[in-house]
């Protein structure tokens, strides 16, 4: 009986909102519907060679020019390779090309490997069915080895199935030995 009285007291003490409001501003909701956009979408997959891919974005929607696929803002991706090495990727913009099973990230891409290696470039392409990440232009890298500047970068498994970073097109290396640190 006391519990019923306390419940009744709390119900009567608070004013009831019968209008019901959505947690979105009206303009924001209309834009999301008109542009067919999603908030906080995520995508995950496993490649044919065993790399787990997880991608999240602030928002995503159809590619505006009508091509099959989606484009997104504020992308974050995590690739976990079979050897437990991890690659975290962030980019302001990106799109998934469904016809070619490729994710293209652009606008200043940061790649951070679990061994401490960090790469920066303007744009990358990443295959969605196999392990392959490649820059489309100039890349700078730093890590335990020192610093690298190169025209292009490609990250893929070698013939033995071990992942390797390849730098090409005018490579400049500043090597730091372990005793220099």
How many helices in DSSP terms? Answer: 2
The amount of beta strand, in percent, is over 45%
Which whole number gives the mean pLDDT? Answer: 83
The parts where pLDDT drops under 50 for at least 5 residues are 1-14
Helix share bin: 10-25%
Shape type: globular
Radius of gyration: 23 Å
Q: Structural class, from helix and strand content?
A: mainly beta
Q: What's the β-strand tally?
A: 14
- Note the run of SSEs as H and E: HHEEEEEEEEEEEEEE
Strand count, sense and closure of the main sheet? 14 strands, antiparallel
Description of the molecule:
This protein is mainly β. The chain is 12% helix and 51% strand. It contains two helices and 14 strands, in the order ααββββββββββββββ. It has helices at residues 2-13, 26-34, and strands spanning 37-39, 42-46, 52-56, 59-62, 69-80, 86-97, 102-113, 118-127, 133-135, 139-143, 146-150, 152-157, 163-168, 172-175. Strands 1, 2, 3, 4, 5, 6, 7, 8, 9, 10, 11, 12, 13 and 14 form a 14-stranded antiparallel β-sheet that branches. The longest helix is centred in the N-terminal third of the chain and has 12 residues, at 2-13. It is globular and about 55 Å long. Mean pLDDT is 83; it is low at 1-14.
């Amino acid at each position: 009986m006391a519990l019923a009285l306390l419940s009744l007291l709390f119900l009567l003490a608070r004013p009831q909102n019968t209008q019901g409001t959505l947690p979105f501003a009206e303009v924001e909701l209309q834009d999301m519907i008109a542009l067919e956009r999603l908030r906080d979408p995520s995508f995950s997959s496993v490649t044919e060679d065993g790399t787990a891919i997880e991608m999240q974005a602030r928002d995503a929607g159809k590619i505006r020019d009508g091509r099959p696929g989606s484009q997104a803002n504020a992308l974050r991706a995590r690739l976990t390779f079979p050897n437990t090495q991890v690659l975290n990727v962030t980019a302001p913009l990106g799109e998934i090309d469904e016809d070619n099973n490729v994710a293209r990230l652009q606008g200043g891409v940061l790649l951070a490997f679990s061994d401490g290696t960090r790469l920066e470039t303007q744009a990358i392409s990443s295959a969605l069915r196999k392990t392959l990440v490649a820059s489309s232009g100039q890349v700078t890298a730093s890590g335990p080895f020192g610093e690298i500047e190169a025209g292009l970068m490609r990250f893929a498994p070698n013939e033995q199935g071990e992942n390797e970073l390849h730098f090409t097109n005018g490579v400049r290396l500043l090597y730091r030995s372990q005793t220099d640190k």
